[in-house]
Specification:
16 helices
C-alpha cells in the first residue's frame, strides 16, 4: 500500500485522484491533503479519507476550519507547504497546485526523494532545468499527469532516447480553433470557458483557449524528455482520443489512446507503470467514426509563439512568460481586459522585465514577483 499526499486536493486533479484512491483502498491511503480556501470540500474529504494532516493556505479559511472542530488531525498553515518534511508516511506526492504556488512545495518533495506525480505545469515552465537536475540528485521520480505527457511517457517505455525522431503533442484546438482573427476580438469570458472536450478549472481552460496551455506543454516536454524543441510538433486533434505520439527514426509511430478522462493518466502515474483495473468508459471503436488531424494555423495563437520563443531563449524568460500570463488571464476572468489582449500584455512584460541568463531559484521567484507587479500596474 502506498501513502499519498495531494497538494491541491480540492481542485480538479486532486478530486479525481481521490476518486481513484477511493476505488482502490487496498492500494492507496491518504497522508496529507491541502487546499487554498475550499474548507467545505476539505471537510468532506477528511471525513472520507482520514488524512494525518491538512494544510490550508488561506488564513481566514484556516481559522474557520479550526473553529469547526470537525477534524482531529494536524491543521497546518500556508508556511507548511514550503517547509513540510515528507517523512516515511508519504510515498507519493501529487503536485496539483495551480500556478507558481506549486514550485517550492514540489521542490521540497523532490529533496525528500519522493515520487512526484506532476500536474502543475508552472513547476517545469519556470524552473525546468533546475527541477530535473534536482530530481536526479535526489533520485526522485517525476511522472507526468498531463494527458499529453503521460501519453509520451507511456510511448517511450522500453525505447532508447537516440531513436526518437520527434514528439507530437496533440491539441483539441480549444473553443476558438475555427474562428478568424477578427472573430477572436469579440470573444467573451463565457465563450472562452466553454471547452469542447475537457472539464478543467477556469485558468487552465482560458490557457487552452489561447493555446498557452500547449505552449507550456512544449516547455514541459523539453525538460521531461530531454529533447530539443525543434523535435516537438503540435497537431490539432479535436476528438482528444489520441493524447500524443512519438515518431521514431525508422518511421514508426507510437500513440496512446483513451477517452478524454484525466483519471486514466492519474491512475497510471499512481501505479507507477502498472495497470489497475477500473470501470471508466473505454473506447468503443465500433462507435468511433473518425479521428481528425489539422495543422496549426499561422499567426493565430500568439501565446504559443511566445512560449516557443521563451523556452529557446532560456534564462528567466519562461518565468516572465508564466507570471505575465497568470496575471493577464486573471484580469480577463475578471473581464477587465479582452481575450486578444492577453498575449499583448505578455509580450510587453517580456520586453520590459530584465533578462537573467542563469537565474537561481530566488532570482526566478523575484522575476515572478516583478512581472506580476508590472502587469498589474499596466492593466490598472
Amino acid at each position: 500500500m502506498k501513502s499519498v499526499t495531494i497538494l491541491g486536493s480540492t481542485g480538479s486533479i486532486g478530486r479525481q485522484t481521490l476518486d481513484i484512491i477511493a476505488n482502490h483502498p487496498d492500494l492507496y491511503k491518504v497522508d496529507v491533503l491541502t487546499t487554498n480556501s475550499n474548507i467545505t470540500l476539505l471537510e468532506e474529504q477528511c471525513k472520507k479519507f482520514k488524512p494525518n494532516a491538512v494544510i490550508i493556505a488561506d488564513n481566514d479559511a484556516l481559522i474557520r476550519f479550526k473553529e469547526g472542530k470537525k477534524y482531529k488531525g494536524d491543521i497546518l498553515s500556508a508556511d507548511a507547504l514550503n517547509t513540510i518534511n515528507y517523512d516515511a508516511n508519504t510515498d507519493i506526492v501529487v503536485s496539483a497546485l495551480v500556478g507558481i504556488a506549486g514550485l517550492l512545495p514540489t521542490i521540497q518533495a523532490i529533496k525528500s526523494g519522493k515520487r512526484i506525480l506532476l500536474a502543475n505545469k508552472e513547476v517545469l515552465v519556470v524552473a525546468g532545468k533546475y527541477i530535473m537536475n534536482l530530481a536526479k540528485e535526489n533520485k526522485a521520480d517525476i511522472i507526468p499527469i498531463d494527458s499529453e505527457h503521460s501519453a509520451i511517457y507511456q510511448c517511450l517505455i522500453g525505447e532508447k532516447q537516440k531513436n526518437i525522431n520527434k514528439i507530437i503533442l496533440t491539441a483539441s484546438g480549444g473553443p476558438f480553433f475555427n474562428l478568424s482573427s477578427q472573430e477572436l476580438e469579440q470573444v467573451r469570458l463565457s465563450d472562452a470557458l466553454n471547452h469542447p472536450t475537457w472539464y478543467m478549472g477556469k485558468k487552465v481552460t482560458i490557457d487552452s483557449a489561447t493555446m498557452m496551455n500547449k505552449g507550456f506543454e512544449v516547455i514541459e516536454a523539453k525538460w521531461l524528455f530531454d529533447i530539443d524543441t525543434s523535435k516537438i510538433d503540435i497537431v490539432i486533434h479535436p476528438q482528444s482520443i489520441i493524447h500524443s505520439m512519438v515518431e521514431f527514426i525508422d518511421g514508426s509511430v507510437k500513440a496512446q489512446l483513451s477517452n478524454p478522462d484525466m483519471r486514466f493518466p492519474i491512475s497510471f502515474a499512481l501505479a507507477c507503470g502498472e495497470r489497475n483495473a477500473n470501470n471508466y468508459e473505454k473506447i468503443d471503436f465500433n462507435k468511433l467514426k473518425k479521428l481528425d488531424f489539422y495543422s496549426l494555423p499561422d499567426n493565430k495563437f500568439r501565446c504559443l509563439d511566445l512560449a516557443y520563443n521563451c523556452v529557446n531563449k532560456g534564462g528567466n524568460a519562461c518565468a516572465i512568460l508564466n507570471a505575465a500570463n497568470e496575471i493577464a488571464v486573471k484580469e480577463f476572468i475578471k473581464e477587465k481586459i479582452q481575450f486578444t489582449q492577453i498575449p499583448i500584455y505578455i509580450a510587453d512584460a517580456l520586453n520590459n522585465i530584465a533578462y537573467i541568463d542563469s537565474p537561481t531559484i530566488d532570482e526566478l521567484l523575484e522575476t515572478d514577483a516583478k512581472t506580476r507587479q508590472y502587469i498589474s500596474n499596466l492593466i490598472s
